[in-house]
Amino acid sequence: MVASSIDAPALGSGLGYRPQFRADLFARRDDVDFIEVIADHYLESSKEKLAELELLRAHFPLVAHGLDLSVGSADGVDSCYLDKIAALIERIDPPWWSEHLCFTRAGGISIGHLASLPFTQEAIDVVARNVEMVRRRIKTPLILENITCVVRIPGGEMDEPEFLWRTLEATGCGWLCDVANMHVNVTNFGADLERDFERWPWDRLVQIHYAGGRERDGLLIDSHDAATSDAVWRLYERVIARAPVKAVILERDEKMPPFGELIDEVARARRMLVENGRWR
Amino acid sequence: MQNIAILNLPGPEFLNVFGLVVILVLAATYLCIRLADRTDRRAPPPVPQSPDAMEVAFLQGGVNQVIRTLIYDLAQRGFVVLAAEDHVIPADKQPEPGELNAMETRLLEAVQAKPKAHALFEDRGLRRWLLEQLAPLRAKLAAEELIKPKSVKVWRRRAQIGGTLIIVGLALAKIYVEWTAGAVNVAYLVFLAAASVASLFALAYVLTRTHASRRGHAYLDAMRLAYGGRLKEAVGHIGSPGPEARAFHGAALFLIGLYGFAPLKGTTEAMFAEAFSRGSGSDGSDCGTSCGGSCGDGGASDGGVLD
Questions:
Q1: List of residues 6+ apart from A270 with CB closer than 8 A
Q2: CATH number, domain at A43?
Q3: Which chain A residues are Cβ-neighbours of B43 within 8 angstroms?
Q4: I want to staple B56 with a disulfide (CB 3.0 to 4.6 A). Which of A161, B122, B197, B257 is the partner?
């Protein structure tokens, strides 16, 4: 399954939904093409959260973004969690949904963190097996997101672009390219993006995440608490010039600025999409 | 009539049957009125990006809510103040030519006589004039099926008349049978029949007292869910120095239309909630009792829904 085989229209330039800006979002609805909801916020929802979800669905195209599927867990995905995700996906009927290429659980214990997988064939096989189980339960296309790594797991057999490329080949999933994560990893691990740029799986690109982060002790952190940096914007523009993309999402979780600043970033992302012929 | 088995039942057994009939009548009334408003078959319209304060107020609580919203806006802008004993009086500040629209100007005229808050609701001339001004808005809301359809009123009347005939007819028939048999102990049945009819009318009132249709209620609920955060933000600005003190000014005025004065309780503007609560019998948070029986048509008459 390549990206273009996801039979859905392009969604444009959107925003990762956070309840704290709900009123502003509705007041400036025309400035946001679609929104992405965090699936985990609606899995065991109160009546009010479900009403919120219905309200969002009635006003915006939606995609869902999961946090805790743990698609890289050697002991498989949690069937109970999978059932809840399946129910949510059925409820909102998105054109696709996304998860992180990582593991968040091991030995039945939740580690509360997106942990990097070892870049090995064995890890790829685990992910492929888990995705197959997910696909049997949820027919809506799943796309996988590259995450940031604090440390590389020893014993890696390949680098990140190859690992991602092979994993997507093995699973048939599309790619959610987080350009901020890509920038963080390339910078922190001193990779040569110029040399390796074409080795990333651009033919599987479906969606982009971008966000701002910060630097601490010489390391970049994908903290979603600042405006998108110039470096990430440059990478974003390069990516959308390189490959067709159906949707781009701004992520912001901390230190929320006035909503207008988020809208400015969404508009900038849209403008670049339009300039590169990716959006109307 | 003496040959009808039900009417020859002993008193307690007849009362059981009578109670069952009353329950069936109330259930049928509920269904008739409920099914007369099937506007919720359609999803509510999208929440507006810039809600119109008058539209929201009229939909939420008819003319009374429009009056509340206009008075509050005039007070925020310094043209009106609340005085002792719930009197609404004009302030010293005079509007510039063209500064107020027609409805605001009319309200400002109405407070020249320094009426009590409730007197504004009872001013029939004012209400009629406002309704004329709101006629295009009302037509728009009706076209969108956001206010109760006329069929609700029709079915309410049918249910009230039919239900009353059944309850009173059954009671009278039993009384007639008892009297012809020489028994005169029918006081409890008379009381029960009266209470049942009262319950019937109360039920019909409760089911029809609000102005919005079921679709309209869903629309208002969606607006509350979408913009509820703005209310907390606006209430937080009340009493703050500078222009932010006009917390519900401009684009935020619709929140007064949507929520009434209830959110002002506990703020420095609680006097609005108090004055209009004393004036209307409620805190103004919804149509409910605040407009008596007059809000069904937005307040055109005192007779109830859609008159």
A1: A12, A13, A33, A248, A279
A2: 3.20.20.150
A3: 58
A4: B257
Kindly determine whether residue A59 and residue B229, on different chains, have CB atoms separated by under 8 Å: no
Q: Which of B50, B226, B251 sits opposite A55 (nearest CB)?
A: B226
How many CB atoms sit inside 10 A of residue A169's CB?
15
Write out the residue range of the structural domain in which residue A150 sits.
Answer: 3-275
In a domain, A181, yes or no: yes
Q: What are residue B81's DSSP bridge partners? A: B89
CA dist A94 → A39, A49, A225, B263 (Å): 11, 18, 27, 37
Task: State the number of CA atoms in the 13 A half-sphere of B30 facing the CB.
Answer: 8
- A250-263 pLDDT, tens digit each: 999 999 999 999 99
Beta-bridge mates of residue A64: A37, A97
**Domains identified in chain A, total number:** 1
How high is the ipTM of this complex? 0.88
B90 DSSP β-pair partners: B80
Each residue's pLDDT tens digit, B166-194: 999 999 999 988 888 887 788 899 999 99
Pairing state of beta strands A205-216 and A142-145?
Answer: unpaired
* Helix ranges restricted to H, chain B: 11-36, 53-76, 102-110, 117-122, 124-143, 150-180, 187-208, 214-237, 254-259, 270-280
Residue A250 CB contacts under 8 Å (≥ 6 apart), including other chains: A13, A14, A15, A16, A210, A211, A228, A262, A265, A266, A269
At A4 the pLDDT is: 41
Q: Nearest 5°: phi and psi at B306?
A: 55, 25
- Long-range pairs for B169-172: beta carbons < 8 A, 24 or more residues apart: B170/B18, B170/B21, B171/B18
Residue A234's φ and ψ, nearest 5 degrees, are -65, -40
